[in-house]
Amino acid sequence: MPGEFRTLIVIVITAATMVLEIVAGVVFGSMALLADGLHMASHASALAISLFAYVYARRHAHDERFCFGTGKVNSLAGFTGAVLLALFALLMAWESAVRLLTPVTIAFNQAIGVAVLGLIVNGLSVFVLGGGDPHDHRDDHHDDDHDQSHHAEHHHAHHDHNLRSAYLHVLADALTSLLAIFALLGGKYLGLNWLDPAMGVVGAILVARWSIGLLKTTSRVLLDHQGPDAIRQAVRRNLEEHSGVTVVDLHLWQIGPGVYCLAVSLIAADPMPPAHYRQCLPQNAGLAHVTIEVHHLVESTLD
Known about the structure:
The chain is mostly helical.
């Protein structure tokens, strides 16, 4: 799997840089650099979880114990990575506050050199991961200028929460490296030594925001949140307009990256076999598991 291979590459280079930054942060007295190294340590662990999720999902893809496949392993790994991000944000904030109260001597030249190296490595990691999930920014809203069925066909583009989590981790690493460089330059040339721990606080806030966003998106999948409105409306419209039925109940939930399960109940005056209605569903919408229940209009009225 491409995501699995890319994640493995990033784990290797992240772990190597992590060791260098932690050692350099302790030796040279830079909280921003130490925070960056600790950040990488948490992310190396999170990336390892992501890699495990890819391997596990692949090896158990045909395991009958999983009713709808192993797609949610992806989101579970993303959720776990988001929790680690949140915990690290708290650790960053705490350590930075301590350094603000008890400043230490910083070896600026050496610390800046290591921070620049960390930024280069993080930039390489972002490039390797290819932007995580370029479609993950989509939500349940749609533009009035486009037909809903068009959005239904494209909304299922692979929402790899696992790869998205890995991408956010290395992006957060790049941010903390950039903040570390900024703080160290300010301390060296302007004497603003307090910038070093202050940037740790700023980085913690930004990382926490990313964590919250990822927690929301992954928890929706894990808790079987209703699927995208564009797909649900397209399903309802196609069935009612092309089949002459009334949709009385419709449930759509995500079971994997871009894969949805659909359960729908219909009332029809002249019922047809479920296979007939299945053909009316929007194409390329990621509907992998579909259950259609058909009721006769007279019987439904008597009920």
